Amino acid sequence: MTRPLCTLITYCYNGERFVDKYFDALLAQTYPNVELFFYNNGSEDGTGAIAESYRQRLVDKGYIVNIEHFKKNQVTCSLKQDAMQRMHGEYFCGCDSDDIMYPQHIEKMVDYLQANADKGMVYCDLRIIEEDTGATKGTMHIKPQTVSRGGFVDCLMSRNISFTAIAYMMRTSTWDSICKTREVYQTTYGENYQLQLPFLYNDLQGYIAETLGDYLVRSDSYTAKLRDYRKNLAALRAQETTIEETLIRFDCPDREQYCLLARRRLRADQLFIALGNGTRDELRECKSALKEVGGLTMRIRLRSNRVVDRLIKKVRHR
């Protein structure tokens, strides 16, 4: 009997040192019916050639293979939308090109959704691996929620959640009932909010308490680049807009209270980053933005005041 089609979406930029492992893991999948959208996103190394070297092997395995090459790097949200508007899978998921799916990853995720018709998405655990040393840094685990919309609030607060594509799979029909056009807000930051928040708001998530993949921590990854504090501040500000746009698009009836919750968390994060790295003006700007949404607690106020005092003293002693 033919198993339901599952769509896998991946984009890759300059991944020649690890993308062969991605494709090897895909070929090792026990699940037989996969539609692949792989985007070589403006790579300047050998990523494209490596991807093409796997094309026939993937076809021979019975997969529907779409490998596309871009000369210039594209906003990944636009690539995700392109795949979602073209995909035919009954289920869909993503996998970053530096992450590794264990052989039964797709099969177990699909099996869960087939056995649980009331669920629109499912999470699994991931092992966290440091690329430079190969050391295991821990497990990415989401504690199942028992409170209605608890997972939704967790996502807004960036706790007990995974923003890694390999960690979850979704039912296409559920997504289509939420987003009939399959269009997502085009953003550089926070695209995973757009997929997860609508499902979590309606308590449609399930959980597999099993490690089904490896999440690779790289020193030159997109996440690592956010260690530059100004890029991190820009990312947090953009995430605020992405969350607001997402709640509008799925017509969240009580979105104002949830947007306020997200604003307070994101602006507090900005302030804490400025406390450690920012100038006096940046610190005051972040403090004012947090105060604007009623998130400037006494504890945060005292901590920021101490830092401002230190900055003033430094200027005076120059």
Keywords:
single chain; 318 residues; alpha/beta; Spore Coat Polysaccharide Biosynthesis Protein SpsA, Chain A; 2 domains; nine-stranded mixed sheet; 19% strand
| Percentage beta strand | 15-25%
Q: What is the average per-residue confidence, as pLDDT, rounded to a whole number?
A: 91
Q: What is the CATH topology of the largest domain?
A: Spore Coat Polysaccharide Biosynthesis Protein SpsA, Chain A
Distance linking N and C termini: 77 Å
Give the count of helical stretches: 12
Taking all Cα atoms into account, the compactness measure Rg is: 21 Å
User: Under the CATH scheme, which class of the largest domain?
Assistant: Alpha Beta
Poorly predicted regions = none
The CATH level-2 architecture of the largest domain is identified as: Alpha-Beta Complex
Helix content: 40-55%
Order of helices and strands: EHEHEHEEHEEHEHHEHHHHH
The domain count comes to: 2
SSE-based structural type? alpha/beta
Overall body shape: globular
Could you give a short account of the major beta sheet? 9 strands, mixed
Number of strands: 9
Could you write a compact summary of the structure shown?
This protein has 318 residues and is α/β, with parallel strands linked by helices. It has helices spanning 19-27, 47-60, 76-86, 105-115, 150-156, 172-178, 191-201, 222-225, 229-249, 255-277, 280-292, 298-316, and strands at 6-12, 34-41, 64-70, 91-94, 100-101, 121-130, 136-140, 168-171, 205-217. The chain contains 12 helices and 9 strands.
